[in-house]
Amino acid sequence: MTRKNRRAVFILTGLAILGLAVGLILYATSSGITFFYSPSEMAQKHIAPGTRVRLGGMVEKGSVKQAGSTVTFKVTDFVDTMTVSYTGILPDLFREGQGVVCEGKLLPNGTFLADTVLAKHDEKYMPPQVADALKKVGRTKDGKLIKEPSASTPEPSNP
Question: Would the pTM of this model clear 0.70, i.e. be above it?
């Protein structure tokens, strides 16, 4: 085998190994490339207890309860609701009726044990993923239904 052929074989083998590694990485992470799951998606996907995920939605009004340094509250997408337990100091901007993303794991009893809580940064901001998840279920950030176009409204026709 000539020097040129050995070099070509070496380069092709390296590219094949690199391609295989990239393919395996993409396959392994294909189901986990979600920024967060809404409570409805958590119920639909049957996330196994102990799996590390992010949960996002709105903090349900009247659901925040504090016992020492542990806070429990409910996160909703106005279709399903999930109870979250968090031990630590909540962000200053955390409050009821606002968007939140929690990172942690699901417990066997259905409670989400959060180790990180992220809150919005001002009154008009909502994480885009939370807003998109709410739109998917046909709600606004206030929980109101998004007005659907009526069937009697004629669509414009193209001449």
Answer: no
